[in-house]
């Protein structure tokens, strides 16, 4: 009787694994046939160079050096899913932009968001703007400035124009929107294939 129970458990597990394998293969086929993020990916705008784009990381880092010596670094990754909103891109892209000047230890940091629904307005939203002394030990008690939304609207527009003049324009944000979504889709497909391989190792039937 114990032997029969053992065989029954193995048989049930084999059937469960076979169902899981079929579901995984179906999802892989769907992802491979998907054209959601297959548009032609234009290059980075205004001399930005991709500095970091590991297939194992979520983010991509770009950098641009202006003729004045000023540097603009952009780090971007996908934000949370936007449920209930239609469009080609299910996530907002979160950008962290740092602007530094040669010989100056401090930097300007902007926390921004990029989505496809700007409708001809600014290609990004600024959520926070900070003046940071890079050499300082920044703790939670350090004052980082007021909420961006509380600033004078003219100052908000001026800060957006400041970033646009340094290359953070629509061609760059469109590149990031497509590139980060494609990267996430590739990582998801790779995860599915690894899981399929793991489940498939239990096939054929282990009875």
From TrEMBL:
Q: Pfam families attached here?
A: MAM33 (PF02330)
Which InterPro entries does the entry link to? MAM33, MAM33_sf
Any one cellular-component term (Gene Ontology): mitochondrial matrix
Q: Which residues form a coiled coil?
A: none
Q: Which Gene3D superfamilies match?
A: Mitochondrial glycoprotein
Q: Which domain of life is it from?
A: Eukaryota
Kindly provide the name given to this protein in its UniProt entry: Mitochondrial acidic protein mam33
Q: What's the source species for this entry?
A: Momordica charantia
């Amino acid at each position: 009787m114990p032997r029969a129970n053992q065989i029954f458990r193995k048989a049930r597990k084999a059937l469960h694994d076979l169902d899981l394998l079929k579901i995984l293969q179906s999802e892989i086929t769907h992802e491979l046939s998907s054209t959601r993020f297959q548009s032609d990916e234009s290059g980075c705008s205004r001399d930005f160079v991709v500095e970091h784009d590991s297939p194992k990381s979520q983010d991509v880092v770009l950098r641009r050096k202006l003729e004045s010596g000023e540097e603009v670094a952009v780090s971007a990754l996908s934000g949370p899913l936007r449920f209930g909103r239609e469009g080609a891109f299910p996530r907002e892209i979160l950008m962290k932009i740092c602007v530094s000047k040669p010989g100056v230890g401090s930097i300007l940091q902007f926390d921004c968001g990029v989505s496809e629904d700007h409708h001809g307005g600014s290609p990004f939203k600024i959520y926070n703007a900070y003046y940071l002394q890079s050499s300082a030990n920044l703790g939670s008690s350090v004052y980082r400035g007021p909420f961006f939304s509380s600033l004078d609207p003219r100052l908000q527009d001026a800060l957006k124009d400041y970033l646009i003049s340094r290359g953070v324009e629509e061609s760059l944000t469109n590149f990031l929107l497509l590139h980060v979504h494609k990267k996430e889709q590739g990582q998801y497909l790779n995860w599915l294939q690894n899981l399929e391989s793991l489940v498939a190792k239990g096939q054929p039937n282990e009875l």
